[in-house]
Amino acid sequence: MSSCVPRPTCGRAWLLFVFVSLSPSLGQACLAAARRVVGGKAISDIEALKRGGTSSFEVDATATSRLIDIDEVDQFARIADISPRDITEEVLRGIAGLHEVRELEVLIREIIADPTETPHGPTEIADILTTQIHVAGQRCVAGFVLKGRSFGKVRSKDVTHQFAKLRTIEGLQLMVFAAVGSIQDDAQRDFLQTAKDAQCNYLVMNVLDLARLLIAYGKVCPEDGLPYDKGGKCPNDHEVADS
Predict the structure, then answer these.
(1) How much is the average pLDDT of 150-162?
(2) Is the pLDDT of residue 208 over 50?
(3) pLDDT band for position 207 (cuts 50, 70, 90)
(4) What is the sign of the dihedral through the CA atoms of 124, 128, 131 and 137?
(5) Dihedral over Cα of 181, 182, 186, 188: its sign
(6) CA-CA distance, 140 to 194, in Å (whole number)?
(7) Model-wide pTM > 0.70
(8) CA 86 – CA 31 distance, rounded (Å)
(9) Phi then psi for 233, rounded to 5 degrees?
(10) Distance, CA of 229 to CA of 142 (rounded, Å)
């Protein structure tokens, strides 16, 4: 998952600091380049140097962080078959009504073929922690934070404690944040920052993404967004289409 990206050393951080101090225009150009390389980490290190602290640049030379597309996940590739234009308001309402544990988590586990259930409670680290995810053919350790129908709006205060727990997972390579409710800006901001701080790839799935994913894999009805039962029917008596 990781790619070899050269990382600035402490000496280079000092050089950036000098550029910022002596030549604002040159300094800003250097900082922009640093952001592209290390996701903005140069800024926090320069500020630390200004305060008399030390640079944290001298760490894993292969670490990186980026937002991935859903269909880059091999287990989710069939989402490309479902256009966002095919998703109706009725389907979105059905997806928004999914229970986090009994429905949303179960359906995603079925798609990634990982039946292992994690205990829900104070000791839980991730809603789904799996090694069954492949990104561009490469297996990775992935942690999911899921929010179901109990959260019509998903705010930072609802999820930041879960994001912080993901950071404690040694070797985590992909963070996934998925919610059927409306993901608020502060929640998304904190998720992105957590992933970047952890130098981990990340994926955000909103209600439309989840509708496309679950329909693509035959988990919910494309007419109303409701899950099929074991007999292949949704609550409105629509039958699952033959694949």
Answers:
(1) 95
(2) yes
(3) very high
(4) negative
(5) positive
(6) 18
(7) yes
(8) 43
(9) -125, 145
(10) 28
Across residues 147-161, what is the average pLDDT?
96
Q: Are 234 and 221 in contact (CB under 8 A)?
A: yes
Q: Which band of pLDDT confidence, cut at 50, 70 and 90, is reported for residue 243?
A: low
% the chain with pLDDT above 90:
66
What is the gyration radius of the CA atoms in the chain, in angstroms?
21
CA 65 to CA 38: how far, in whole Å? 8
d(Cα 210, Cα 15) in Å, to the nearest integer?
45
**Structure tokens belonging to residue 53:** 């602290």
Which residues have CB under 8 Å from 69's CB, separation 6+? none
pLDDT for position 242: 65
DSSP string spanning the chain?
A: ---------HHHHHHHHHHHHH-HHHHHHHHHHHHHHHTTHHHHHHHHHHTT-----SS-TT----BPPGGGBGGGGGGGGS-GGG--HHHHHHHHT--IIIIIIHHHHHHHT--PPPPPSTT---SEEEEEEEETTEEEEEEEEEE-TT-SEE-HHHHHHHHHHHTTSTT--EEEEEESSEE-HHHHHHHHHHHHHTT-EEEEE-HHHHHHHHHHTTSB-TTT-PBP-TTSB-TT-PBPPP-
